[in-house]
TrEMBL record, chain A:
Its main location: membrane. The keyword Transmembrane applies. SUPFAM superfamilies: MetI-like. Pfam families: BPD_transp_1 (PF00528). GO terms for cellular component: plasma membrane. Residues 332-540 form the ABC transmembrane type-1 domain. This is ABC transporter permease. Keywords: Cell membrane, Membrane, Transmembrane, Transmembrane helix, Transport. The chain crosses the membrane at residues 33-53, 336-358, 365-382, 420-441, 473-492, 519-540. It comes from the Bacteria.
From TrEMBL, chain B:
Pfam families: SBP_bac_8. The keyword Signal applies. PANTHER family: ABC TRANSPORTER SUBSTRATE-BINDING PROTEIN, SPERMIDINE/PUTRESCINE-BINDING PERIPLASMIC PROTEIN. The keyword Signal applies. Keywords: Signal. This is Putative spermidine/putrescine transport system substrate-binding protein. Residues 1-22 form the signal peptide.
From TrEMBL, chain C:
It is a multi-pass membrane protein. One of its GO terms (biological process) is transmembrane transport. Belongs to the binding-protein-dependent transport system permease family. Residues 188-376 form the ABC transmembrane type-1 domain. PROSITE patterns: ABC_TM1 (PS50928). Keywords: Cell inner membrane, Cell membrane, Membrane, Transmembrane, Transmembrane helix, Transport. The chain crosses the membrane at residues 12-31, 37-57, 64-80, 125-150, 194-213, 225-247, 259-282, 308-334, 354-379. This is ABC transporter permease. It comes from Pseudooceanicola antarcticus. Its main location: membrane. It is found in: Cell inner membrane; Cell membrane. It comes from the Bacteria. GO terms for cellular component: plasma membrane. InterPro entries: MetI-like, MetI-like_sf.
Amino acid sequence: MSDTTQNGPMLAADGTPLKRSLARALRRQKMRALMLISPLLIFVLVTFIAPIADMLFRSVENQMVSETLPTTTQVLGEWDHSAGEPPAEPVYEALYYDLFIAAEAKEHTKLGTRLNYEYTGVSSLFRSTGRGLDDLGDDYLDELEEVDDRWGEGAFWYDLMTGTGSTDEDLVAAHAKRLEQLTGDKLSGDVGFAPSTEIAALLPKTTAAYADFAVYTALVDGDVVAEEDPWESVYVGLMTDLQTADVASYSGPEAEALQTAAEAAQGIEYIPLKTFFAEEDEDWLNVDIWATVQTYSSKYTSGYFLNAVDLQLTPDGIEARPENQQIYIMLFKRTMFMSLAITFSCIALGYPVAWLLANLPASKANLLMILVLLPFWTSLLVRTSAWKVMLQQQGVINDVLVWLGLVDDAARLVMINNQFGTIVAMTHILLPFMILPLYSVMQGIPPSYLRAAKSLGATNWTAFWRVYFPQSVPGIGAGSILVFILAIGYYITPEIVGGTTGTFISNRIAYHISSSLNWGLGAALGAILLAVVLLLYWAYDKIVGIDNVKLG
Amino acid sequence: MKLTHTLLAGSALALVAGAASAQDLTLVSWGGAYQSSQQKAYVEPYVEANPGVSVTWDESSAEAVAKLRAMNEAGNITWDLVDVVAADAIRLCDEGLAMEYDPDELLAPGDDGSSAEDDFGDLIVSDCFIPQIVYSTTFGYRTDLVPEGVEAPTDVCSVFDLETYPGKRSLEKRPINNMEWALYCDGVAKDEIYDVLATPEGQDQALAKLDTIKDEVIWWSAGADTPQLLADGEIFMGSTYNGRLFSVIVEQDQPVGMLWDMQVFDLDGWIIPAGLDEESQAAVEDFVKFATDTTRLADQSKYISYGPARLSSAPLVSTHADLGVEMAPHMPTDPENAKNTLLYNYEFWADYRDDIDAKFQSWLAK
Amino acid sequence: MALTIAKPTSAVFAAGVAALFGAFFGIFVGTATGSTLLGLVGGAAVIFALSWAAATFLRGQEKAARWGFIVLFTAGGFLFSGVPGLVLGLIFGTFFGWLTFYVASGRYRTGLPPYSTPRQVLWHFAFRTIAGLILVFLITPILVVMPLSFNAEDFFTFTPEMLSFDPEGYSLKHYRDFFTNSDWQGALWNSVRIAPVATILAVGFGTLAAIGLSQPHVPFRQAIMAILISPMIVPLIISAAGMYFFYSRIGLQGTYLGVVLAHAALGIPFVIITVTATLVGFDNSLTRAAANMGADPVTTFFRVQMPLILPGVISGGLFAFITSFDEVVVVLFVGSAGQKTLPWQMFIGLREQISPTILAVATILVIISIGLLTTVELLRRRSERLRGMSPS
């Protein structure tokens, strides 16, 4: 150390510059702290943060429409709803094949349910249409079988479609990928089929429908394609193709049968798919339904979030929901208002108790502390039910009041199934969360301050208000935020004692998650609620500091 | 207790025999008296006959659709047999979460020789739904709170008649059933209810009718609520399931009477989750065949007043297991009780549930 | 301890104060027998007379006089309305005897500064009464639950038989149900299997992290703290739904491990908060001293740090334990039949079939919690003695 020149860096004992040495020590300290923290951090990230993130992601996720109806949404892209005309034949054609494979995979009703959130009636439209899809193909098959029995046979079809010469492997791969998206499962295995390029060019719709069939049969059912009778959609495809295709020059396997069929097709009545869908349900000509499909065909949507604030995404942009369906903004406001009311009643009730506890000798205070903690340790469900027994019209409190003659038997007080009931029960449940931080803050306020103020001539009230109260504010802050944050997310207590006017936004979230199964909307509501809570948490951390919360 | 004994006895037997491989079935049901009737009528005799089988109950029927969906997403089905109401069964079947079955193959023929399909008849409302019982949602009322000089109510519309029958009512916190009753009591003909309810005007009409009693309504969400409210004297009348009212009236001996008018007929039954492995599926199918035969379904009615879903079980309905009360007159299927009923319209509610529910909740919150 | 020396007050004053209470209780007795007003006036008059007589003539023989009150009231109550009257008489007799002499002897002023004005004295007692009422509010549900758990009927209702103290109205059948029903026993067993493991996980990870967090120079401290506290601030229903989907996907849904992990996550904030709070007052020179004397970090931790932060750890652990033991929303989603805990069983009980067995369980749990809380309190006193901070 002694040899250090004035200008050179200051060196530590081991000769390294002091600055670097200190930095290294600091780094080591940081590393040690992080190492201690990291197991828990990883634990919480995996068991808690990841699930929450996953949950909230559902509020924007909307792949279902484009995955279930990939071709339809693509073709529909050019359609303009404002003209007031339903889309043209190609859209209905695409819809038929999309819906057919979706119905085989039982995905179409899920989509119906999804779109029903946006437009009432879509659910049954998809369900009933899904049942009728086979009929069209069956009718065609009957006619074709009259010409040649083999049209109903799997092996015959397999030969026809495989053809000779080069095969189109990519087509099958594309269909397999589309099926994977539809079912959401990873599919593997060999399809055992690829259409000849010649057939694929000659009969494109037939090939596409057959490829769907082949992929599904091989990869989902695990059967051999050549042994299974093709789907009805294949006949619809064939009939559509035969309207335009020139099969006379085709020379591959079963060319003769195909040519005979083409001739016979002249005599079979071809039903355009638009007509078919209109006959299934005239709602398919409804412009609004198509506009809804088009609006919700993107992969991500703001629709759930808009619904969560009483707006809706319509083909014409964002609109307010009909007034008689608006509820969420009001619920958010009510949740805020009631949580505030609960927080204030907790302050009003908690402050005197905390004061008493802080000013009693420790041995007495600890005994009373048990009274504070005891309800904390009693099952929430039981406490809530007990409030029900207390507060209802034939309950304990009303009985006593009637007995004392303070309240007429015919005019018993309504104290439950409304906001009052929720506020009472939740104040009770959250009161310990107010008392504990208040108590720990008040314990740190020396009683001599108050005495000093009084001996200087302050009245009791002035001494309290000007000297003691300001020092207890951090406790009030800590308790308030804690109570408010916990209150805002409660749902079991409001559910049991809240009736219709005392329920919270969490009750709706729970309803959408476990009952209506509109998970996207539930997640959107949850995300908004979470944002509010995080904002409060942030404010709390800024004002009070999370370290200052003390429990017990 | 009994279950443990049976299980213990069962596993002991299995150990001795060393033959039957242990098979654990997870059955999902509603808990409470209903589940214990299933335990006594189906599970106990089945386990006795098949000592290798043990049964675990999961009281998750209320969340069955949500949970099955998540299980399916995750590809890990942990349930073997799920008890659901028909509406949920239809939904599960539609979404491919429940297994479709062939009634004549899976279910035992009726005792009277009829095929399973004929025996269950129209009650197989979905390809996946294995009907068990017919139940009704109806009204119970406090007999001691009926005003003096007034006849006890017999008409469902007395719910809306606050002048003759003052006092609180309890209704379920959802539009289903309530909207139908409101329209019916507002003068809409029974067979037009759903046509009217499909229109916005009709929905407003129903809500307006409900508005006339809104201040007097306590809304329930758990099946145990109305019986408790009746027992407390907290309400004059309230809607609940007929089995609950039977329990309050006959088993608990409370001063409560019930209406058999415009009660909503509904079904409850099993579904087998789709995607079970072969071994579980075989075990479940064996159990289902046993548990839905004519005798077993009739047996269940010894413990709870829900009508067996098989025609051939009806003549076998006897008396309550503990109280010796004749059960048939308490069944929703009894002709005396079924003079004026409403059948739950599954199709309608699948479509209109979201829409009407939004309106209903918004109306409720106002 | 006494700030003020007790100075006897006049007999009229003591009797007057007692008479106020007499009037108050008289209202209830009067109402029960038909006339509220008569009860009010009669109560005031009787108590005034008795208290005045006692304070005037028996000032020297406090003990004998108080016994006299008890005997007189008990006998009166018994003659008046049998056994319930006897019990009430015993309570009233004890109370009024004590009150008369508490006021008459001036003992009520001992805890207050000698210069307190009468208004300040009045406020002092009024304030304590208010605080007392709030504490009563806090335990009201427990006071309701306990008698109802002995209900002979299957509803949450005070039956007329119960109110008239008819033994017919009471029964132990709900307790019997709890102890013999395999559902309840299974649920209890599951709770006992899940809660401690979740607690150990939460406490183990939590204490380590809290020590890490209380080191100086922790990078991203605020952010890390926010993440670790988040299970407490995220609304429970969101956590439950999120865990449900996520755990389903990774195969944890419906498993013992899944429930334990979920409950551990929920308990962690409590451990972090309590342990960091204890560490705030921790003197870091102690660890350095230990290191100086050759202790390795592990020894230092277990021999020096741990004993000092133990109260915080225990208190956090208890909160974590109770979080798991009383948690119903998350377990309902994350668990399956095999993990049905007590709160879950209670929830089913409330939803599907209201049965006072729930209340019997609650009563048993309350008694256990009283035991646990007392243990904690004793432990705390012990640890304060260890640290040389004897309770004042």
